[in-house]
Amino acid sequence: MNILYCGDGNIADGVIMSVISLLKNNKEPINVYILTASVKTDQRECTALSPEFAEKLDSMVKSYGADNSAEMFDITELFAAQPPTANLKTRFTPCCMLRLYADLVDRLPDRLLYLDNDVLCRSDCGEFYSQDIEEQEFCGVLDHYGRWFFKKNIFKFDYINSGVLLLNMAKIRQSGLFRRCRERCADKGMFMPDQSALNKLASSKKICERRYNEQHKLAEDTVFQHFSTSFRFFPWIHTVSVKPWDTERMHSVLKLHEYDAIIDEYKNWKLRMI
C-alpha cells in the first residue's frame, strides 16, 4: 500500500500519528512517501522536513514490519521552477500545493493514496485502496461544505475534498492533470487553490462513500476521519479546528477517545523522532 504525504516541517506530528493509524489497522505492507520543500514568501517561511526525520520514520514503520518503508523527496527546486505565483499569498501554506508536483517525481508508484497529515485511519482501508480506478485520474469523497457551493455540474454534487485521494499517477501523467493544475495555480488566484484546481480540471474522477473521508462526525462505518475545520451552530455560530496531535483538545472539545491507543504510541515515538 503506497501512501503519500506532502508538506514542510510542520507536518511531522501529523505524519507520525497518521502513519501509526495505518500500521495498526492494515495488514499489508505500508510504503510511505513524502514530498517536502523549503518555501519562502513575503508572508511566511516554510522549512523542509529533515533527512533525519525521514530516516527515523523509516525505522519506525519497519519496527511494525520489515516490509514497511518510508522515503522522502525534497522538491524545493521543482517548486521554485514552477511556483503557484497567484496563490502564494493565500491563508493556506504554499506547501499544501506540493501534491501537484507528484507527477514530476519518477520514483513514485502509479497508485498512491494521498492523505492530509490530519487524517487518521480507523479501520482496514484495503477495499478503498484496491478499487478499480483504471479509467479515473483520482477518486475521493465529496467535500462536506464545499459540495454545496462549488459545482462543475450544476445538477449534481461533484466537488471532492482533497484530503483523501486515491491517485492514478499513470493516468495523471498521461492526461497532464497536475501540470495543468500547476499552471492554473500560477495564473489564477483561488480559494483552496490545489483542491479547486483539481476539481475544475479533472476529466475523470470517481466519487466514493463518505466513510472514506469523514470530515464532520465519527460514524460506526468511518474508515478515514479527517480533522478539518468544521462549523458549530450552538450556542453560537463558530468554527472548531482540533488536530489529532492536540490530544488534550481531542478529549475536551471533541469528547473523542476513539484514538487513545494511537495517541499513546504517537507520544512514545514523538520523543524519539522530533
Please provide a written account of the structure.
The protein is α/β, with parallel strands linked by helices. 31% of the residues lie in helices and 20% in strands. The chain has nine helices and 13 strands. The chain has helices at 12-25, 51-64, 76-81, 126-129, 169-175, 177-187, 193-201, 247-252, 260-273; strands at 2-6, 31-36, 39-40, 45-46, 69-74, 111-115, 119-121, 138-142, 160-168, 205-208, 224-226, 230-232, 238-240. Strands 5-2-1-6-9-8-10 form a seven-stranded mixed β-sheet. Helix 6 (177-187) crosses helix 7 (193-201).
Please outline the helices and strands:
Elements: E1 2-6, H1 12-25, E2 31-36, E3 39-40, E4 45-46, H2 51-64, E5 69-74, H3 76-81, E6 111-115, E7 119-121, H4 126-129, E8 138-142, E9 160-168, H5 169-175, H6 177-187, H7 193-201, E10 205-208, E11 224-226, E12 230-232, E13 238-240, H8 247-252, H9 260-273
Parallel strand pairs: 1-2, 1-6, 2-5, 8-10
Antiparallel strand pairs: 3-4, 6-9, 7-11, 8-9, 12-13
Helix pairs in contact: 1-2, 1-9, 6-7
Largest sheet: 7 strands, mixed
Form type? globular
Q: Please compute the radius of gyration using only Cα atoms.
A: 18 Å
Helix content: 25-40%
Task: Please name the defining characteristics of this protein.
274 residues; alpha/beta; two-stranded antiparallel sheet; 9 helices
